Amino acid sequence: GSVVFNEKLAELYKHLGLIKDAVNQYLIVIQYYQNHGQKDKVLESAQKMVEVDPQETANRMRLAEIYFNQGLQKEALKEYELIGSQ
């Protein structure tokens, strides 16, 4: 299976301003890549998800956790600081 469809759908929803739908598609994509051990794709998808809805704390938390789990402490800290300032 592939999540190319979900990625395209996420982009389309983002373009249409359907934020929640776009985020839901990115969550599916992130889960898929996590299950398949594709760390770079996990990170890329999480970053795109946060771009769609930068004010959503839960998405930023998820991105921060991904940074942290991948050993990117500085990036994780930056996300946590952004969360704290919101």
Chart the SSEs and their pairings.
Blueprint: H1 4-16, H2 19-35, H3 39-52, H4 57-69, H5 73-85
Helix pairs in contact: 1-2, 2-3, 3-4, 4-5
What's the end-to-end separation, in Å? 38 Å
Sheet/helix structural class: mainly alpha
Order of helices and strands: HHHHH
What would you call the shape?
A: flat
Largest sheet: none
Mean pLDDT across the residues is 96
Number of helical segments with 4 or more residues: 5
Q: Strand fraction band?
A: under 5%
Low-confidence parts: none
- Compute the number of strand runs: 0
Instruction: Classify the helix fraction into a percent range.
Output: over 70%
- The Rg value, from CA coordinates, equals 13 Å
Structure characterization notes:
The protein has 86 residues and is an all-alpha fold. 81% of the residues lie in helices and 0% in strands. The chain has five helices and no strands. It has helices at 4-16, 19-35, 39-52, 57-69, 73-85. Helix 1 (4-16) runs antiparallel to helix 2 and helix 2 (19-35) runs antiparallel to helix 3. The longest helix is centred in the first third of the chain and has 17 residues, at 19-35.
